C-alpha cells in the first residue's frame, strides 16, 4: 500500500485548538492512564517548557495534522555550569497513522532544526508503562538520535489528608517576598548547580510580566532559615488554569486497588482516586533546593507546604525526583501514588562527546516544566 505524502513543518498559531485535541485524545497508557491538556491555549502553556519552543507537525494530503512533537531550549546546569540544553516532549501521533513509518519524517525534520547548533544534547522522559514508545525510540534506527537511558524518574502524587500532619519544626519557615527574592534566587542557583539538569534562574524570571514561569507567585516560596540564613527552598505552583492532568482510566490490579482504596479513603480522611475522565486537583512542588540535601530541611519544608494546602480544594501535591535522589526518602513517608518514567539523554553523533563528559551528579528535572 502506497504511503500517504506527509508534509512536515513548524506549527502555526491557528493550529492551537487541534494540537490540544490531539494531546487529549492520545493519553499515556499504564496501570493508571493519564492525558494532558493545555487549556485555554497549547502555545501559551508551552512557554514554561523553555525559553525557545518549536512545535513540529506532520500534515496529510488533506492538510490535517496527523502528529506532532515539541523541541524546547532552556538554560540548565550541566557539570556545574550553565548550558543551553534541549527538551523533547509531547510526541503524539493520531490513530490511523501510528506504526506506518511517518515517525522518520518528523525526526528527519528535527535533525534539520538541530543544525542551528543551539544545543548539543536533549533530554526526554517516557512513562515506563509506554513500552511501545520505549521500544521504538530506543531501537537505534537510522533516522533516530541515540536515546541514552540514565535511570528512573519518579513522579509522586502525595495524597492530601483532610487533617494536617504534626511535625516539630526546628527551623524558621518564611514565605518569599520582594525583600528576600534575590537571596532566594542566588540560593537556588548555588544549590541547583550541584545537580545535573537543574534549571538556571534569573531575578527577572520571577518579576517580569513576560516570564516563562506563568502563574507562579513569589509568595508561594517556602524558605527555611537557620540563624537567619537560607538553608532550603521549595515552591508550590498551581498550574491548572493553563495545564491540566486528566485521569482517563485504570487497568489490571489498579481496578481492584482503586475500589478498595476509595472504600477506605473516606474513613482515613484521604482523597479518593479520581473517577475516569476527571481532572486531577493538584499542586506542583517546585524549585527544590536543599543545602547539602539534608533530609530534615526538606522534611520541614514539605510538611509546612503540605499543611498549608490541606482544605484548599486540592487532592494531591506532585513532586518529581530521580530515583537516585536521597530526598525521595522524605517523600516516601507520605501516603502517595508513584508514576515511574525513564529519563533519557538524546543526541545525534555530534552530541555523543558532550554526553560522555557528563559527570555523576544526581539529575534534577523540574517536574512543573515537563
Overview of the molecule:
With 370 residues, the chain is α+β, with helices and mostly antiparallel strands. The chain contains ten helices and 15 strands. The protein has a twelve-stranded mixed sheet, with helices on both faces. A three-stranded antiparallel sheet has the order 2-11-12. It is globular.
Question: Which features would summarize this protein structure in a list?
Answer:
10 helices; single chain; three-stranded antiparallel β-sheet; about 375 residues; twelve-stranded mixed β-sheet; globular; alpha+beta
Biggest β-sheet: count, sense, barrel? 12 strands, mixed
- Mean pLDDT comes to 92
Computed Rg: 21 Å
Put simply, the count of helices is 10
**Residues in β-strands, percent:** 25-35%
What is the H-and-E element order?
EHEHEEEHEHEEHHEEEHEEHEHEH
Distance between the termini: 38 Å
The shape, in one word, is globular
Summarize this entry quickly:
With 370 residues, the protein is α+β, with helices and mostly antiparallel strands. The chain contains 10 helices and 15 strands.
Strands, helices and their partners?
Blueprint: E1 7-10, H1 16-25, E2 32-37, H2 42-45, E3 52-59, E4 65-78, E5 81-93, H3 103-114, E6 122-127, H4 131-137, E7 146-159, E8 172-175, H5 181-192, H6 204-207, E9 221-226, E10 229-237, E11 244-250, H7 253-268, E12 278-279, E13 282-290, H8 295-309, E14 316-322, H9 328-331, E15 336-347, H10 352-356
Parallel strand pairs: 5-6, 13-14
Antiparallel strand pairs: 1-3, 2-11, 3-4, 4-5, 6-15, 7-14, 7-15, 8-9, 9-10, 10-13, 11-12
